[in-house]
What we know:
35% helix
Amino acid sequence: MSTDRAAGTATGDLAWLGAHAAARLPRTVHLRSSGPLAETVEAEIARLRALADGADGSLHLWDPAAAAQEGSVAGDPVAEVLEQLAGAGEEAFALRADGDRIIVIGTGRGLLYGFYAVVLGQVPASPDRWSRNAPAQPIRMLDHWDNMTVHPVMGQVERGYAGGSLFYEHGELRPDLTRVEHYARLLATIGINRVAINNVNVHAHEATLLTTRLDQVARLAEIFRAQGITVHLAVSFASPILLGGLETSDPLDPGVQRWWRTTAEAVYARIPDFGGFVVKADSEGQPGPFAYGRDHADGANLLARALAPHGGEVFWRAFVYDHHQDWRDRRTDRARAAHDHFAPLDGSFDENVIVQVKHGPMDFQVREPVSPVIGAMPRTRLAVELQVTQEYTGQQKHLCYLAPAWSEILRFPVGGPDSPGSTVAELAAGTAGRPGGVVAVSNVGADEFWTGHPLAQANLFALGRLAWDGQLSAQRILGEWTAATFGPDPLVGEVVHELLAQSWLLYESYTAPLGVGFMVRPGHHYGPDVDGYEYTPWGTYHFADRDGIGVDRTVATGTGFAGLYPEPWASLYESVRTCPDELLLFFHHVPYTHRLHSGKSVIQHIYDSRADGCERVLTLRPRWQQLEGRVPADLHARVTQLLREQERSAQEWRDQLRSYFFRASGIPDENGRPIH
Ligand code: GCV
């Protein structure tokens, strides 16, 4: 672990909140706030002070009362900005330069966020006007898929690629939670305001966090609370049976309802600001309301009513599909499932239910269309679920900076380009009466670099920044992260940018062609296996044969999935002529000789992009070598080792896919590059 000030970086312990961030904090800081997080700000100032000397000038952190006493800044009365802040909620802050002073005004979380914004250089302080900042998404949440014990198949963190759990060890909370404290402050710097602390696949041991192990939740809640973050628990829908000894979990059963009410009361007696429950029901073996002939609104409202008296909320996941499919049955389409189950329930969920929808209709593949569910539930609070942990995007062994993908998703006007307020970001954020947001699966674990691949920290950072403001460019966010993590060295900035900026498209180029997903090894999901899932009960994803490839999801001849979108998307996806190349095989089954808009045939695209992508991967490590001595040695070594693995794996992807599709199609590569 390195906190090497001489090398100008601080990595292991502090990620982007180390010496470089500390160096930005003005030497003189005046804090005038009686807000709830003032003590946190004070402690953070002291902590950062110990890391670096700080910048010239002074920082003034005021709550609105202090600002009102001040009266004016740079000659302007503060009354107007205070009025605007009052209407913007307790997460908002305003920032302005006045000579060599930087002024931040905010209440509660707003002041904390404003403080971190200065430290991380997220908002430039203008001498001419106040920069007002408020988050676009009311809910900015991370879900942890952590088990307390090591699961025999899934390990301790399900789909975790950064070592064991940050929270738990040997089935209980870790005795030393110092790194959880660091983690909480890292999350606050990027505006995260909620976390869920256990896996949505709730095993028997973890289920007890709700009852007999509640003290452990309370301990974590205390740590996160100090950084303005509320804690949530993933619960099993079968808890009344598992924990309460009842014979049923039927949502309409009065005994079940009573059990949830009493349990929620006990939780709030211990943790008054507890956030609520996250539920995966009737999905991949988890229990749910279907067992009792009830629907998902019945299920969600059961929990919502137990939490409502205490202000708690239910995050009810829409990830419900049949994982006992018959590959011979071409009508069942996993892509339709969430829409089929949830869209008809729009308007039936209680006010404190948030339906949590994966961003695409499948499951966090490297490329998917936006889920039509997001545009189909105007009377329901929604949260769009993203995956920071890189399950299908290289498992934190490959570089894959996901901010460009998330930007594309958040900006997509799912309700139609001419329909105002219909981008994914806008629909997720909801309205004042129905606030929603963004929830993402964390990529952090007990690993000394937090994320396994040290450069995967950029994804966590970007997730928070985009949930705060979906209009920020992926490139700008990358610049913020790089400077805060590695300092101002221009070569470091250049190389990190070169490695990460295009890495999602690069990863796509040698792995999943044209919107086909799941060509991965079943189980662990790493590395190529074209037919890995094709004949399994989990769904069928490419239908490749000697003549063609892709899934026909048209209304005319396929599963009808394309028709679940509003216009113009339904028609655009329906027609092979207008469907975008990158999604062609998601929506259509076409001959290998089909010409893409790019001018290439499908088969030649498959051949070329794999070979080109791989060649490009081979250029990354020599470039990274140039940073030896300019970034901490341990971090440099870890990245070098992982780049070697990325090279090996990319070659495997290239060779398997090129060979597979040559053998399937019999069509040679017109460029004559080797096929095995
Ligand atoms: C937590 C995918 C993953 C599972 C995960 C599931 C989910 O299927 O492979 O490990 O389970 O998504 O989101 O619930």
